[in-house]
Design a protein that fits this description.
Layout (H helix, E strand, L loop, with lengths): L4 E4 L2 E6 L2 E6 L20 E2 L8 E3 L13 E7 L4 H16 L5 E7 L9 H10 L6 E3 L4 H5 L7 E5 L4 E7 L4 H14 L31 E2 L19 E4 L10 E9 L4 E3 L4 E7 L3 E7 L7 E7 L17 E4 L3 E7 L7 E7 L5 E7 L1
Parallel strand pairs: 6-7, 7-8
Antiparallel strand pairs: 1-2, 2-3, 4-10, 5-8, 6-9, 9-10, 11-21, 12-13, 13-14, 13-15, 14-21, 15-20, 16-19, 16-21, 17-18, 17-20
């Protein structure tokens, strides 16, 4: 999916690598959509088989018969997606609260990037973020196609008879989603369903975005889907090239400095001291990256407007901006705590081999 804004009445649907975020025209908090009330939920289809999963985490392989009489919440994910990570506090809480009442949460990990096809990477990520519900590995996109899904994250709500009764694409509408879970559980005959809603506050990378100040959208760095690349001479595809910084970056423009190879999915640093520059307006800056084929950790430093981030550092760097790329994942680099203004982000890598995939903001 492209990074184009699609205007739908009073809403803007921002579609980013399949992740869908629903914003108001002023980038305010997510708006409630006019979904049917829980008692009016239509039947949207039947739960497809999960037998085409290429592997499983936290469980033996599951079949449709394992869910007989259960309410099932299918959660499509890809582990480096910030939009999915920010839904996790809710999904994790629902899985825990309603497990004894008959709710089964099943994650379907359908990879966006090549490194997310490595089940060891996925297994480590799932453990690090403390997910204990079943995860189906969907490396061939078979389950994705069976659901006709297009988004990360996506939730599908299946009743006790195996009917898909509702779906939720992207972040938000958590209250509505939980009420639907409660109704479906009640429909199975359970009498002890609490009407209270979970109280959730995401911490760290799972914290809700600052919609009021979010003016930077997700952007890829590989040439297939990147926008606003601004180094002089434009991008040179699939070959070494020494890039330079432009005289000035405008909002949401980015540039390279040093010897890089721009590839279809990512950019690769060929020599030491390469930089990525980005002009942004957001509270948070995240970067999906990894250490390259060698697997050797890559040291880096982040600056904001040419200065160390100090109290505005993310969890993956220190106050002076130093950090280490040691695995393939999303890194939280900036979390500002003061008034949000236009700023220039800079990351410099001190070793070759670093790969970078996409910027996300919050």
């Amino acid at each position: 999916m492209s990074n184009k804004l699609k205007y739908l009445t009073a809403l803007i649907i921002v579609v980013i690598h399949g992740c869908t975020t629903i914003l108001s025209k002023n980038n305010n908090a997510t708006m409630q959509l006019n979904y049917p009330s829980p008692t009016q939920l239509p039947i949207e289809g039947e739960l497809p088989s999960l037998s085409n999963a290429t592997g499983w985490i936290n469980t033996k392989p599951l079949k449709s018969t394992d869910f007989k009489g259960k309410v099932v919440l299918i959660n499509f994910c890809t582990y480096s997606c910030i939009n999915w990570l920010r839904t996790l506090p809710y999904v994790r809480s629902w899985a825990s609260k309603y497990k004894e009442q008959g709710l089964v949460v099943v994650g379907v990990h359908t990879p966006e990037f090549t490194f997310e096809k490595n089940i060891d990477n996925v297994r480590k990520a799932i453990a690090d973020i403390k997910i204990d519900y079943p995860i189906a590995i969907d490396n061939d996109y078979a389950i994705w196609r069976d659901f006709k899904n297009q988004y990360w994250p996506a939730l599908y709500f299946i009743d006790g008879q195996g009917h898909i009764r509702h779906h939720q694409f992207g972040e938000g509408d958590y209250e509505q989603s939980e009420k639907i879970i409660q109704q479906m559980l009640a429909e199975t005959g359970r009498k002890d369903i609490s009407k209270e809603l979970v109280s959730v506050k995401g911490e760290g990378i799972e914290a809700a975005p600052d919609w009021n100040n979010l003016q930077s959208n997700e952007n890829y760095l590989g040439y297939e889907r990147t926008d606003n690349f601004s180094s002089p001479g434009n991008a040179k595809l699939n070959k070494h090239f020494v890039y330079a910084a432009p005289a000035k970056l405008l909002l949401n423009q980015w540039a390279l400095v040093g010897d890089w190879t721009m590839r279809k999915e990512s950019i690769l640093l060929n020599k030491t001291n390469g930089k990525i520059l980005y002009r942004f307006h957001a509270r948070d800056v995240h970067l999906v990256m990894g250490p390259g084929l060698s697997g050797n950790p890559v040291k880096f430093r982040v600056l904001i407007d040419g200065n160390p981030p100090l109290s505005h550092h993310g969890k993956d760097i220190d106050e002076l901006g130093y950090g280490m790329v040691s695995e393939y994942r999303l890194y939280q680099l900036i979390r500002q705590s003061n008034s949000i203004v236009y700023r220039q982000f800079e990351i410099e890598f001190f070793n070759p081999g670093a790969e970078a995939y996409s910027f996300t903001f919050g």
